[in-house]
Design a protein that fits this description.
Blueprint: E1 2-3, H1 17-23, H2 27-37, H3 49-58, E2 65-70, H4 79-86, H5 88-102, E3 106-111, H6 119-131, E4 147-152, H7 162-169, E5 193-197, H8 198-210, H9 212-216, E6 226-233, E7 239-244, H10 249-256, E8 261-266, E9 272-275, E10 293-298, H11 303-317, H12 323-341, H13 346-362, H14 366-370, H15 372-381, H16 383-387
Parallel strand pairs: 1-7, 2-3, 2-5, 3-4, 6-10
Antiparallel strand pairs: 6-7, 8-9, 8-10
Helix pairs in contact: 1-5, 1-8, 2-3, 2-5, 4-5, 5-8, 11-12, 12-13, 13-15
């Protein structure tokens, strides 16, 4: 694991300290501490974690649930896998604190089907934490009971979306729902449910043990903390890096040994493709999207082939429920294939750009709302290469 500047997730950690501190507070005080930290979800959407917990806490009901979204499926992303394999106790401690904060006694880890080889590690960690009285009945003699089950996904990318994930856990086909109601109102088994990403939960023990102000000393005012990035492509040192939010893309490229990069896909396939003129911009919730994946493309890469690869993925992974996503991705891929053959007019390209706007505003979930991003950003930045080839 590599990092520059300061680090959190790969710094000092003592199991149970954050949980003990949380149990010494009232649930609403735990929620308030997380709100003060400014922590935002690390799964892509960036919703404030403390606010999500507050919504669930305020919901009435004798049953509530917390779910760890470990369905890491974004192309080029492998950071959560590393956390699950090497630091599962942090994930479980964060999930336990989340359960205490919202009033849940049962938590789940929804593990990507392709990560089934991590299952024994997680099961072993759960049993060990029970022996240490950090999980199970009467945790640390506080009177708080909390247990965790693991559910396996079946390989569908769309189940990374929280409602599709919940539908899958409910025993139905993994498809997004219309909102509202939101999961914090009516989620798993129609009960108030919080869904948090693996990396998000790993920050929770640190925030409780060291305080919100300490956490806010990392990153920027609007994007607090650090972020894990899975960095791959035409570079000398691929891997998982922990960097402070606000780091510029130029700093990242220098760190990983990128020589003559032509473009960088930031935020995964559903993120945006950044050209050289924007390499000096920061990666943050106010700048370039801080998704978990950064893919670097060298000078010799054909950007039309890159775009085709992304769109083939989205056509394959669209659940097919809503027309803008199902038909839109297919039409975009068809347009790219026409461009390859030299059969696509400039006028038709303009129609495809309009289609992208329709998909972003009318698709049911994040898949269809963000899948046009690669088409828009690659066309904008590499128009001459693609249209006049």
């Amino acid at each position: 694991m590599k990092q520059i500047k300061k680090k959190i997730l790969f710094g000092e950690y003592v199991s149970g300290v954050g949980l003990k501190k949380a149990l010494s507070k009232k649930p609403d005080e735990v929620v308030e501490e997380v709100k003060k930290s400014g922590l935002r979800g690390r799964g892509g959407a960036g919703f404030p974690t403390g606010l999500k917990w507050e919504f669930a806490l305020k919901e009435k009901g004798d049953e509530k649930y917390v779910i760890c979204n470990a369905d890491e499926g974004e192309p080029g992303t492998f950071k959560d896998r590393k956390l699950l394999m090497e630091q599962p106790e942090k994930v479980i401690e964060g999930l336990t604190i989340a359960g205490y904060a919202i009033g849940a006694k049962q938590g789940y880890i929804y593990l990507r089907g392709e990560y089934i080889y991590i299952l024994p590690t997680l099961e072993k960690t759960i049993e060990q934490l029970k022996k240490e009285n950090l999980l199970g009945k009467n945790i640390l003699d506080s009177g708080f009971d909390f247990d965790i089950e693991i559910r396996l996904g079946a390989g569908a990318y769309v189940c990374g979306e929280e409602f599709a994930l919940i539908e899958s856990m409910n025993g139905y086909r993994g498809e997004p729902r219309n909102k509202p109601p939101f999961p914090t109102q009516k989620g798993f088994r129609d009960k108030p449910t919080v869904v948090n990403n693996v990396e998000t939960l790993c920050f929770i023990p640190y925030i409780l043990s060291k305080g919100a102000e300490w956490f806010k000393s990392f990153g920027t005012e609007g994007s607090t903390g650090t972020k894990l990035f899975s960095i791959s492509g035409d570079i000398e040192h691929p891997g998982v890096y922990e960097l402070e939010l606000g780091v510029t893309l130029n700093e990242v490229l220098e760190l990983v040994g990128a020589r003559n990069p032509k473009a960088v896909q930031v935020g995964g396939a559903s993120g945006i493709c950044v050209a050289k003129k924007d390499f000096d911009k920061p990666i943050s919730f106010q700048g370039l999207p801080p998704g978990g994946s950064i893919i670097v493309f060298g000078e010799n890469r054909d950007m039309l082939k890159v775009l085709k690869n992304f769109l083939e993925f989205f056509v394959e992974e669209s659940c097919g429920q809503c027309t803008p996503c199902r038909e839109g991705n297919y039409r975009l891929l068809e347009g790219v294939e026409m461009l390859e053959k030299g059969e696509c007019s400039v006028r038709y390209v303009r129609e495809l750009l309009t289609l992208c706007d329709v998909m972003k505003t009318s698709s049911k979930c994040g898949l269809g709302q963000t899948s046009p991003n690669c088409f828009l950003s690659i066309l904008e930045n590499f128009k001459d290469e693609i249209i006049y080839r």
